[in-house]
Amino acid sequence: MSKTIQMGFNRVEGDLEVKATIDNGVVTDAWMIGTMYRGIERMMTGRGSLDGLVITPRVCGICSTSHLLAAARALENLSGAAVAHNGRLIRHLVLAVEKLQSDVRHVFLMFAVDLANEKYSDQPLYAEAVKRFQPFSGTSVIEVIQASRKLPEIIAILGGQWPHSSFVVPGGITSEPSESDLRQCLMLLKEFYRWYENRVLGCSVERWQQVSTPAQLDSWLEESDSHRNGDLGFLIRCCREYGLTTMGQGHGSFLAVPEHGSLGIKSAGAVSGGFISNEQNTGFAEEQVSEQLRYCHYNESVKDGHPLENGAPPRFIDDSEKYSWAKAPRYNGQPAETGPLAELMVNGDPLFQALVEEQGSSVLVRELARITRPARLLPLMEQWCGDVDMKAPFYQSAGEIVEGEGGGLVQAPRGFLGHWLQLSGGRIEHYQIISPTTWNGSPRDDQSVRGPIEEALIGTPVADPDNPVEIGHVVRSFDLCMVCSVHSVSKNGHTLSRLRLGA
Amino acid sequence: MMRIICVGNRFCRADSLGPLVYDYLAMEALPQGVELVDGGLAGLNLLSLFEGCRRIVVVDRVDGFGRPGEVLKLGWDDYAQGSYVEYGHSSALHYLLLCLPSLGIVPATEVLLVGAEDSGQPSVIAKAAEIVLEAVNE
Questions:
Q1: Which of A19, A212, A303, B138 has the CB geometry, 3.0–4.6 Å to A6, for a possible disulfide?
Q2: The whole model's pTM is what?
Q3: d(CA A230, CA A238)
């Protein structure tokens, strides 16, 4: 028996609908539908060359620093401006702060809620999952809200405000943090560090970093009660019990841009950047990025192409083939998953390479990559704080920026983020943004190849189409943020909890 | 210590009630020990502002509690009773309000919500500001 369900999706930012065909209890086809147009690029046209530094952080309230950094890097790429070393350190620090907060909130406030779904009420770990993950009062939920609440203060101390700060500019940063400021940041960081080790890992970061094979992961889990009962250990046990270890496998292609490595630091937290397809890492080359429009609501006369060439104006076309306001970004013509798991895959991380080899890029592996990212970032962040030279500048002049074209790339909390712009006479002629969710939540491309999430949904078992929690697991494991992908502002207009069933 | 936290988006008219009340109150003399904050869209990150006060007055647009344009003063029980919201990046204020008992803030701190289903009519703004001032003067 075949049935197509179309569900509005809650607990993602922005407006998303997922349509899936279910045959005999298994998803056989899927469509990711971005239901609103973003349009921020249209707002940029004709504005001053530096306006992206103020406007584009408003694309998103969660990763506004990532957008600010991408905007600054695009201008630096265009102008050839060098960045003061202290400026680089602070930029890395604030970007990593956004990742810490986003990662723990996503896992425990958005993803894990589904582990307390009534579908699993007959599972041995269900009662504990409800105790930890139920909204408003789950023990882990409340812990995460409390532990993550002060992280943005680090950005506010260093950049004057959060979110939507504009302190990152071509050449560095506009602020000059004092030693006292940095000490305060370090104190806030240590507070989170302690909580993360005690409650999430159940061990020190150093102990977790020793886990480099699936067998060692199993041994670590059995090593002590604190490992088993920490939120990480419980999440692993729960996902295994619920059968999420192989669910949600995608194309097996991964994309990440180089990040946190420009300071010559070799660390698990630094991302080398690259593209993996057919298990081969071909490295990263920005010119391989393109956008394809066949299935998107954009003017048909506009050609596909590189973001510097592709400024397609929106146009709703009542055509059954077109179904999303999100474009279809492709790397070397291929779809690619981006995010924390992609970072680890292009870095050649032995644990995650082995897990993907054994289980595929599953729901559990994606969430494991995300919830352990703080363990990779926190030691680096402490180092960056300590490396700031108070006698050196945080900014060096980039001169006037009026003409040319360039692109700025950032490995944002959810993965690959790119800003591209063309300037003429000090005005923006063209601006284009590709955000991580545009990659992951992409519709089909010109060759009708599914986007990463669409592909990951194929084969997903759905026990009850009226409670398709399994689809939720797969989609949420990509940590969508549709607001970056398709539209501008909506506080009250979310398509919450809608579910429409059709023949 | 009391705090008035005005929430919303001044660039989105339908959600501008909180910021407009903030602008109004910023021109008024507030009683000693009362702090006025433009909470913007900080959502869950407003949590720090809920600490260390005996009374908090949140000002935001509210839907479904009264007639359009009617300014309401709601206690925590009034707006939380039977209320449910999924966590999302921008639904977080409502989510935060519902978490307050588990966070140990309610009932120790009295948290009031002043709002209206309105896009910023001057008379509604003035009425909301009047009710907020009454609440912090009690």
A1: A19
A2: 0.91
A3: 12
User: Which tens digits make up the pLDDT trace of A241-299?
Assistant: 999 999 999 999 999 999 876 544 456 667 889 999 999 999 999 999 999 989 988 87
CA angle B49, B38, B86 (to 5 degrees): 65
As a dihedral over the C-alpha atoms of residue A69, residue A75, residue A80, residue A84, rounded to 10 degrees, the angle is: -40
From chain A, pick out residues whose CB is under 8 angstroms from the CB of B47. 145-146, 149
Residues of B in contact with A150 (CB under 8 A): 48
Residues of A in contact with B45 (CB under 8 A): 149, 152, 162
pLDDT under 50: residue ranges of chain B: none
- Of A484, A496, A495, A477, nearest to A107 by C-alpha is A477
pLDDT tens-place string over residues A363-393 = 999 999 999 999 999 999 999 999 999 999 9
Judged by a CB distance cut-off of 8 A, whether residue B102 touches chain A is yes
Lowest mean pLDDT among A29-38, A84-93, A308-317, A349-358: A308-317
Task: Detail the DSSP E strand segments found in chain B.
Answer: 2-7, 34-40, 55-59, 72-74, 110-115
Amino acid at A42: R
Chain B contacts in chain A segment 361-380 (CB below 8 A): none
- ipTM value, please give it: 0.86
- How far from the centroid of its chain's Cα atoms is residue A333's Cα? 21
Nearest to B88 among A10, A153, A489 (CB): A10
In the three-class reduction of DSSP (H, G, I as helix; E, B as strand; rest coil), residue A276 is classed as strand
Average pLDDT for A103-126: 95
Q: What is the DSSP letter of B31?
A: P
CA distance B45 to B96: 9
Q: Is the CB of A61 less than 8 angstroms away from the CB of B101?
A: no
Helix (H) or strand (E) holding A328, with range, is strand A328-331
Residue A309's pLDDT is what?
84
Name every residue whose Cβ is closer than 8 Å to that of residue A238 and which is 6 or more positions away in sequence.
A115, A125, A128, A129
Residue type, position A363, single letter: V
Shortest CB distance from B88 goes to which of A13, A137, A153?
A13
